[in-house]
Amino acid sequence: MFKNGQMRRLARYFGVGTIIMLCFMYASPVGAFVPEQSKHTTPAPAHAETEPDGDPDYQRALPTAEIIIDAGHGGIDGGAFQGDILEKDINLAVAKKLYLLLSSSGVRVVLNRNGDYALSDDNRWFSSRSRHKRDLSQRSQLSKEIQAGTVVSLHVNWGKNKSVRGPLVLHQNEGQSALLAYCIQDALNRQQNTRKLPKMGKPFYLLNVVKQPAVIVEMGFISNEEDRRMLTDPRYQLQTASAIASGIRNYILLR
Ligand SMILES: [Zn+2]
Question: Taking every annotated instance into account, which residue ranges of this chain make up the domain MurNAc-LAA (predicted)?
Fold first, then answer.
């Protein structure tokens, strides 16, 4: 894409937002998306690359975090369901709210899908016949393309026991991921009046292949009536997104 020096110069002249947009344009094989208004931003003109290196304080002016929000499932893959309520729709609704909350508070953030489609549809580079594997590999590839990102993957749980409810955050076997999981779990416990502890999510592909800190946020149980009502109500979706956002901001302060 760009060399480091070029990125620094471009960032100085056009701001980090434009650079992220450029990253998306060049990262199109992995199907990343930017908000509607950014799609029309003009790419940086060639003269930007001839400018000298600038202010040594520039690095400190960069935002302190870069979060990739993974809206779990999508398209043909509905995820967990109860009746005609599908996990993929809840994940996307909360993901969009979380995106807006984080970006409006100055956190550099990207959302890996902003509509109802499967990421495997974008995957032309992995020849597996398993759509599920192509979908997951597409998600992990995105986290490689957007360097230094922390991945927050949004999901909804399902249980045979309909009385089980509450949020659960799963983390990697790694300190930063565990810290992020604790921060988000704490915020969700406060919001949903639960006392769960985050868990290590060993068998989860995403947590195993993503190199950066990553967590899977199970926002509640679609199989539980109380959770389901909360997860499908836009006001509670906003509260859930707000709790996750505050957990992420706490993590950024602590790490
Ligand atoms: Zn899921």
Answer: 140-249
